[in-house]
Design a protein that fits this description.
With 309 residues, this protein is mainly alpha-helical. It has a single domain, classed as Farnesyl Diphosphate Synthase. It contains 16 helices and 2 strands. A two-stranded antiparallel ribbon has the order 1-2. A hairpin with a 2-residue loop joins strand 1 and strand 2. Helix 3 crosses helix 7 and helix 5 packs antiparallel against helix 7. The longest helix has 28 residues. It is globular, with a radius of gyration of 19 Å. The chain binds farnesyl diphosphate (FPP) and magnesium ion.
Length: 309
Amino acid sequence: MVQADKKLTEPETSTIFDLNNYLKQQKALVERALDQSIAIARPEKIYEAMRYSLLAGGKRLRPILCLATSDLTGGTLEMAMPTACALEMIHTMSLIHDDLPAMDNDDFRRGKPTNHKVYGDDIAILAGDGLLAYAFEYVATQTKNVNPENIIRVVARLGRTVGAAGLVGGQVLDLESEGKSEITAETLSFIHTHKTGALLEASVVSGAILANASEEHITRLSNYAQNIGLAFQIIDDILDITATDEQLGKTAGKDLQAQKATYPSLWGLEKSQAKAQELVDSAIAQLSIYGAKAEPLRAVAKYIVTRDR
Ligand code: FPP
Ligand code: MG
């Protein structure tokens, strides 16, 4: 694999980047790949439950970030798409479990009844488990034209991201913090960097690993991802207060109802919005060396603070 450092440092040009069109195109590519990733087999019910949530729409931000980073660092669609799909499988399974009565007990997700509302708690738990296991199988068996060492690095990174050092750990602290008014900014930051930030960071980093990017680039792109990860969560907290159920495709106002500590509850809406903007500016600053080639990653960062759903 070629180390594409030289090619990466192109001068910035003033091309006008069409974000909406880019997101639409990338989302369509990801939707097609996700649809092809899981076929219905016996027992049909579990495959249907897995496909129900996986193909229910969503922003597909994690796969789009993985594809964009791979492209930026010299990778191809073929190299990155299986991991892009696996990231969405992991994200989807975490939402299926998060929505269960034992956790957030939510009835709607992505504009549709939640998985357990349609298939029951038992099948929803198993659909989550099935998607999680399949994500790893999918990366290991479907990734093409990447050296095996980098595939193992991606698998290891995903494992760490999902487990107690990542999503699971963040979710545990989130559950423990419900109803506690004395939660500190430090605890809140731990919850968000683990529950949300870790998978967004893994999306960016795995794209770079697959493209065989140097450690210097991986570190820089990690910093970009950490900043957009926190900004993403702050905007999520704001939207929970300001957006409607229809906009979000899920029940709005749940954080207040569950007495969850959020950034707006600590800082207020205005300061939270300003903080998100600051984080996005820092994320974009990490991309300056890449010039126009990083326009997709810049645009995704901007989208994170301007989105209304
Ligand atoms: C949504 O947060 C939930 C998450 C981002 C992840 C939750 C993680 C788990 C349930 C652990 C899953 C298990 C494995 C093995 C990965 P939220 O409730 O703040 O947002 P919401 O309003 O969209 O529900
Ligand atoms: Mg939830």
